[in-house]
Amino acid sequence: MKCVLITSEVAEVLFYWADPEFMAILHQRFGGHDQGGGEAPALEDSINTLFAPMIISCTTLLEKLGDTYTCFSSENDEHLYVLHMFGECLYIAVNGDGSESEDDLRRKLYVLRRLAEAHFGLVTLDSHLFRRELRPGDSEQRAHIWGLFQSLLQTHHQLRQDDQSFAVEAVERLIHPQLCEQCIEFLERQVVQHINGSPERAGHEVVHAFLLVHTKLLAFYSSRNASSLRPADLLTLLLIVQDLYPSSASEELPASQFSEDESSLQRLHSSENIPMNSPCPHASSQEQMAEDSLQFLAPPAPEATNPRRIFLDANLKEGYCPMMPHMMYCLPLWPGISLVLLTKSPSSHVAHSIYQLLDGFLVLEKKLKDGQEIRPHLRSQPVLVELRHRMDNFVRRLGGQEPQLQNTWLEFKNKAFSRNETGSSCELLQAFCRIRRQLCAVYRQLFLGSSGAQGLPQNLLDQVQQLTRDKLQDWRDFLLVKSKRNVTIVSYLEEFPGLVHFIYVDRTVGQMVAPSLGAAEDSASELGKGPLPAFIKQKVWSLVALARSYLQKGYTTVTVRDGDYYCTYFLWFENEMGYRLEVTEVPVLSDDSAPIGTLAGDYYRKLLRYCSRTHANEVVKCYELLTIHLGVVPTELVIQQACDLARRLWEPSRIPLL
Q1: pLDDT at 255
Q2: Nearest to 373 by CA among 425, 415, 416, 412
Q3: Are the CB atoms for 212 and 241 separated by under 8 Å?
Q4: Residue 523: what pLDDT?
Q5: If I label 398, which of 85, 119, 444, 631 is the partner at 20 to 30 A Cα–Cα?
Q6: Tens digit of each residue's pLDDT (9 = 90 or more) over 380-418
Q7: Contact at 8 Å (CB) between 139 and 294?
Q8: What is the C-alpha separation between 280 and 43, in angstroms, rounded?
Q9: Strands 319-334 and 337-344
Q10: Is 56 contained in some domain?
């Protein structure tokens, strides 16, 4: 039994996802007629009634004490609840079958927040506007948005269970240097330069292009003026691609039956829609047609190329800008193989200007909330003086197109820069909130409205899609097989006897190398078929969870004997030349901190920044290695093999991708 919920402070349901077991419990408790003989309550009303006491108590504690509970279990540990406040919205995850731990549920909430930021951008900084985006008044639009996030959550859950790269939250590359280099050159000359040199692109510029085979990265190219793509953003894009074109669709057909016909791909994708939960078996027709029972309303099928507005971090010449608007195009070549393009719109510089203004106002707003008395010296605050100059220029450039922003800014200046200083800190704080909301509203209108959905013309995308198909035609079957057997453990056994499995992760670039681990019933692996592959997979997933729990406590080395196996975990730092750097300790995290990973809070980027303080003159790189050996291998040999394995894997990680 699983459920994920986003609510406002007044217990309004902003989003929910629930599995059939949870829906059955709701129907059992609220599905019948009420005591007055009326109709059964709508689905959202039932969820609201069930969670309202918890939401009210949580927000009351936060209001009265400035703190609240983040996790609790019900009587007899039947149900586990994890809660987290993001802004003014409460995120809740529930598990009632014991299949998920506290870390799993908290990770699910952080991933959901990450997906919301990727789809709504800086609008998430204002809770009022964020609520309007997540829960629009139109029922069909609400069904589409909720269906989108429900499907992404389900896809992420499935990938975490089945795919090693999502288990450790790092991108796995297809190891083939020759083909990789050819594809990078092709992406540069035949894709990026072809589109950016076309007069039909209407100001849109392709900044990133990459090729995927299932969840594995074949090649990646960025234009000269593009900002580097963070590992967390790349992993988010892989998740979206898998949600649009699930790998399972291609696994049902042998390679010889893959059709090259465009119409077959179109039919394959048009049959896909965002997965929605089926209604309860005993639900009445009135319940199924209720406006609030949005999971019963299937959104329209996405377009063939799925152009989607996406917000990613960017380091520009002008400075850093989180959640910079991009347009994402996923062009399916064959089932399981896709070309992905990311374009930057001509108005992207406006997003950077809005972020700079928002960042400055948020800094001052935080000082006021923390009780710092900045009011007497407000006019002389260097930050606000600079903000005033930038804001005046920004409003002037809009040329009266946003009268609400202009009026709010004039009102703010009258309060903040008046000489009589009659306004209180509370009134000034409200003025900060209003100007922040108006800036987010301008951002929302520019980049989330219908006018922001225009992008590259379809005929240009069709040309690039066909060019890429022609390029990879002879490699197609090889790539599909290679994605299943990317790295084989057999090639390591002669040098490392007793080694069962390993995962090597370069956390600096967010990429990993690991032997293929097929545990599905219909797929054969080096371990054969039957229970053995699933058993080893369970050991690997358990080791990943164990390593994270110890890393959270500050341990960078773990060795443990697990039955007939010996498991190890190592985290270390190196400079650019490959020499190990001594780091005395890593931060110890609290139990309710952001989960360790890339999608949830980007732990490793913060860790690299933390460790760079003691090595200011060097480029610090971070690596992880997880190994599983047979238990008969002596401990000293296990440690020595881990060192030798890390040294051997250091070179293949330099396969060109960018």
Answers
A1: 40
A2: 425
A3: yes
A4: 54
A5: 119
A6: 667 778 888 999 999 998 877 888 999 999 988 888 776
A7: yes
A8: 11
A9: antiparallel
A10: yes
Q: CB 550: neighbour CB atoms within 10 A?
A: 15
Rounded CA gap, 33 and 39, in Å? 5
Q: Which two tokens stand for residue 206?
A: 């392709």
Residues facing 629 on adjacent strands:
499, 566
| pLDDT at 283 > cutoff 50 | no
pTM: 0.88
pLDDT band at residue 315 under the 50/70/90 scheme: confident
* Distance linking the first and last C-alpha atoms of the chain: 43
Same domain, 46 and 139: yes
Task: Tell me, yes or no, whether 526 lies in a domain.
Answer: yes
Give the pLDDT confidence score for residue 538 in this predicted structure: 93
Q: With beta carbons less than 8 A apart as the criterion, state whether 387 and 432 touch.
A: no
Q: Round to whole Å and give the CA distance between 654 and 181.
A: 12
Task: Report strand pairing: 511-513 vs 171-173.
Answer: parallel
Please report where in the chains the tokens 């000269």 appear, as a residue: 224
Cα-based distances in Å from 438 to 126, 398, 412, 444, 496: 9, 13, 12, 10, 61
Instruction: Quote the CA–CA distance of 278 and 157 in Å, as a whole number.
Output: 18
Pair (575, 555) in one structural domain: yes
302, two tokens = 């996405």
pLDDT in tens, 116-175: 999 999 999 999 999 999 999 898 999 999 999 999 999 999 999 999 999 999 999 999
CATH of the domain at 477: 3.30.450.30
Same domain membership, residue 335 and residue 317: yes
Cβ neighbours of 633 (radius 10 Å): 17
Rounded Cα distance between 366 and 361, Å, is: 9
Mean pLDDT across the chain? 84
Contacts of 396 (CB under 8 A, 6+ apart): none
**What pLDDT score does 371 carry?**
66
